[in-house]
Each structure stands twice: as structure tokens, then as C-alpha cells.
Amino acid sequence: MATAAEAAAMRRAVALAARGLGFTSPNPVVGCVVLDATGETVGEGYHQRAGGPHAEVHALRAAGERARGGTAVVTLEPCNHTGRTGPCAQALLDAGIARVVYAVADPTPDATGGAATLRAAGVDVEHGLLADEAETVNTAWLTSVRTGRPHVTWKYAATLDGRVAAADGSSRWITSAASRADVHRLRAECDAVVVGSGTQRADDPHLAARGIEGAAQPLRVVVDTHGTAVRPGARVLDDAAPTLVAVAEGVEPLPGVATLHLPYADQNADAEHLPYVERAPRAGGNDDGTSARPGTEDDEDRLEHRFTASGGAYRAQRPAPRPGSPTPQQPAQPARGLDIHALLAELHARGVRSVLLEGGPTLAGAFVAAGAVDRVVGYLAPALLGAGPAALTGGGITTITEALRLDVRECVALGPDLRITATVAAPGTKEH
Ligand SMILES: NC(=O)C1=CN([C@@H]2O[C@H](COP(=O)(O)OP(=O)(O)OC[C@H]3O[C@@H](n4cnc5c(N)ncnc54)[C@H](OP(=O)(O)O)[C@@H]3O)[C@@H](O)[C@H]2O)C=CC1
Ligand SMILES: Nc1c(N[C@@H]2O[C@H](COP(=O)(O)O)[C@@H](O)[C@H]2O)[nH]c(=O)[nH]c1=O
Fold first, then answer.
1. What is the ipTM metric for this complex?
2. Residues belonging to the active site
3. Domains recognised in the chain with CATH numbers
4. How many Å lie between the centroid of ligand 2 and the Cα of residue 226?
5. For a substitution probing ligand 1, which of 363, 417, 419 has the most ligand atoms within 8 Å of its CB?
6. Comparing 313 with 257, which gets the higher pLDDT?
């Protein structure tokens, strides 16, 4: 049974772990507090960056000889393996720690087994203290270990009637300065920020974490199937943070920009659910409708992106042909957008453990349809627009029984706005 001092130490260890958010990928965030035999705190530490010392090592260093006979309180089971640093279970034994209290078991095959090693050496080991809090702070890493893809937070800013832009497409700014500053904290905590080509075209967003001292910069990712939305001079191309543009296979890499080639979404898998784009191939384009060369779209050939009421799906449509203009020779082909699972797998392979999906509604719908949203952070402004795009388009949901049910974790007032944080409930756990 854990003592009150150990519970307080674990709360502190969770807070220490949170300081590592955004800096430790592909590693977890971990906090540790060492108590002496009387229950007094003698050392604290957290994992500050991948490749650096683990939380236990920092805390043991701070405690020195006072760790002997004491208790180590850790948010994650001490590791048992030699990676870039030595095994923490051994470090705890070497320091003479008599008791270890940890919150969450380490699920990685390499590192697991620390608790067993400690027990076998005669250390008193307890597991599960404040496990919910410790899970929550480490949710990105735990999700990525359990699912093999990064944890995804979909964030949006909407009016109280659920609009993310006005009918004329203008959307800056819906929420207050306080909410927007909070978004920069979210960006700094995530490894990558993702937007679709529609948002890129409409907003020319910057997507870096601004105004936070010492902030880790996320990788900025634009999902731009044809490589035509990210143009020279785009704000995501400045050097405030790294940028990756995801395009379809066969599209030429964008000059001077890290380009990721992805397959189209598997039409057979999610075809009826995925938002899609109707387009006719452009002159000089490839057979599949992708451009042969990025940045060559001329105004006449430019696709007009419009919301339609058709089946709740979003379609980008060609403008009606001008009188006298030639009829396209080839029939319009459905385009499916890029494969969300392939995108997440590629980001995971690059060490990304947490993604902040910042829109827009079409790409967010594709993530929801792909079952790839873990957490939703909605900023709601006390304003009404009455028209304009809704926060989410499609998502593969057509009837009330398919509603994606969420658990509200937090509701916070930010200036005049509300920030609601909710997680996706495990299937079958919610009835409304
Ligand atoms: N208030 C808010 O929080 C936000 C508001 N907005 C607003 O939303 C509007 C833009 O929304 P929207 O057009 O939906 O933009 P998105 O950013 O969702 O981009 C959608 C485009 O992404 C491309 N895409 C690539 N792969 C996929 C896929 N698998 N599924 C779906 N799309 C894919 C498609 O174009 P292609 O294949 O041609 O590349 C698609 O048309 C703007 O008015 C913007 O201001 C946007 C973000 C946040
Ligand atoms: N309009 C709107 C948001 N819009 C989001 O912010 C992006 C612009 O980011 P940046 O260019 O880095 O400042 C934009 O493309 C969209 O994803 N966010 C909000 O918190 N509140 C708002 O009212």
C-alpha cells in the first residue's frame, strides 16, 4: 500500500514527466522522485531528451548517498535494457534503493522486465499508483507503442454553431488570442503538425510553435496530393521549423522541400466513407490526375474547391466550363486522397510519436474514417456564423448509431472561449 508521501511524490513525478513533452520522441516522457527512508524528497528528475539520461538516473544523481534505503517513485516501470543508456533497474539497485513504486508498466518488449529484476534482487516493488494520470501524460508514446502509429490529436477552432470558416472562406480569427496562444503550447508538445492542401491553400498557415520560450518545434506536414498547394514563398517553407510535404507517388519532389511519396487511399477499404475529390486530369498531368510537375497549375485549369451538400461529403469540383471552352477529353476520375495509414506509418518511422492534426474538415474526416483520431481538442468561440464549413466533414458516419462517442476529459475557459478535450471512448463502452 502506497503512503501519502508516495502519492504526493507520484503527482510530482507526473508533473516532471510533462516537462519532457515534445522533446523525448521516440522515447516516453518519464518523471521520478526519490524519497529517503523518512519519506522526505531527496532527488527529482525527468527524461529530458531522447538519448539523454533517464528520469531515474537524474533523480538518483540528485539524491546521491541519500538514496540508500529509500524509495524511488517513477511514472513508468524502470527499464531493464541497455539502449543508449544503461538499465535503470540496475542503477536503482546500485544506489541501494529499497522500494520502487511505479505507475504504468513498460509495454516495450526490449525494456520490460525491470520490475521483475528489482523484485528478484529483493526490492519491494509496487505498481499502479496514479496510473490514470501517468497514462495520460504519456498517452502519445503509449498509443504509439500499442498501435504502431503516432497518437493523433485533432484540434479545431469553431464558432458555437460549429463552423470553422465563414461562407466566403475567411476564417481568421475565430477564437481569442488566449486560445491561439494555447494552440502553440499544443504544437510544442507534439512531434508533428498536419494540415491538408485545402487549409494550405486557404490559410497559408505557418504551423510553428510561436511565443513559447525554449519550445520544441514540430515537424510541419502538408498533405498535398498533387504537390500544387505548397508554393514558393509559402509560410511553412520558412526555417522556423522543419517541413515535409506528402504527395502522391509519381509526383515530382518539390524543389528544396522534404517530400514524402504516399500511395492513394485504398478505395476498397474505406471507399464509401472517405471524403473524396472529383477531378479531371489536367493537360500534361498523369493518368491518375496527378500533376506531372508541381506548381504548374494555371488559373484556367485550377480546381475550384467547394463544399457541397452531396451526401455530407466534401468534393473539390471543377468549375463549370466557360462558354466555348473545350470539353475535357478524359472523363473525370475519382481521387481518393492519400492513404492516412501510410502517412502515419511513415511519420512513425521518422520518430514521430504524436501528431496534432490542425485541419481542415476534409482531412480530419479522413482521419476519423480511418480510425486514426485518439483525442479531440475543440476551441469554441462565443460567435455564430450560420453558414460555412462544419468542423468535420464525412468521417464515414451516416447514422446516429455510428456516432463516434467521446469521453470529455476537461473543459476549460480560455478568455471568452471554451476548450473541450475529449478522448475517443473504447468501442462498446458508451450508450446514449
Ligand atoms: N478553424 C479551424 O480550426 C480550421 C479551419 N480551416 C478552414 O477549413 C477550410 C479548408 O478546409 P478543407 O478544404 O477541408 O481542407 P483540408 O486541409 O482538409 O484539405 C483537404 C484536401 O486534402 C487533400 N487530401 C489528401 N489526402 C486526403 C485524404 N486522405 N482525405 C481527404 N483529403 C485529402 C485533398 O486535396 P488534394 O488531393 O487535391 O491534395 C483534400 O481536398 C479553410 O476555409 C480553412 O480556413 C482549416 C483548418 C482549421
Ligand atoms: N482560425 C483559427 C485557427 N485556424 C488554424 O490555425 C492555422 C493557422 O496557424 P498559423 O498560421 O500558424 O497562425 C490555420 O491554418 C488553421 O489550421 N486556429 C485557431 O486556434 N483559432 C482560429 O480562429
1. 0.97
2. 56
3. 4-138 (3.40.140.10), 148-275+336-424 (3.40.430.10)
4. 23
5. 363
6. 257
